[in-house]
Amino acid sequence: MARYEHLPIYRDALNLAVHFEKIVANFSRYHKYTLGSELRNASRKTVTLIIQANNQSDKQQALGTLRDQLEELLLLVRIAKEAQAFKSFNAYSHVVELTAKVCRQNEGWLKSQSQSPQKKPDKSARMR
């Protein structure tokens, strides 16, 4: 099992999940059990996908799935904002900043995986 606690993306995603746990407690009853529940589940799923991606040798597919999960999370955050579930604009903006940070890290990780070193041609093949 690969270690993942040292990854900045893991720490930020975990902070986001914990933040959702705290912020959803301030949602109205209606939003707490609908949007709040979905936000909490999506943020926990994000952390799980990071752990799974770190454990795989070919990370591109898992990171693509993580990208999709983050897009879903952002959509839920936007819906919650439009439904006025957040008690303040600062609560919303902090969530967006944390989510965007995780998105940027995921894109960087995905980019680093796609730029794996090219196999150098064999010297003997060039001499022929």
From TrEMBL:
Chain intervals with Basic and acidic residues compositional bias: 119-128
Chain segments annotated as transmembrane: none
SUPFAM superfamilies assigned: IVS-encoded protein-like (SSF158446)
InterPro entries in the cross-refs: 23S_rRNA_IVS_sf, bAvd
Region (Disordered), start-end ranges: 108-128
Domain bAvd-like: 21-112
Protein name listed in UniProt: Four helix bundle protein
Organism encoding this protein: Methylomonas paludis
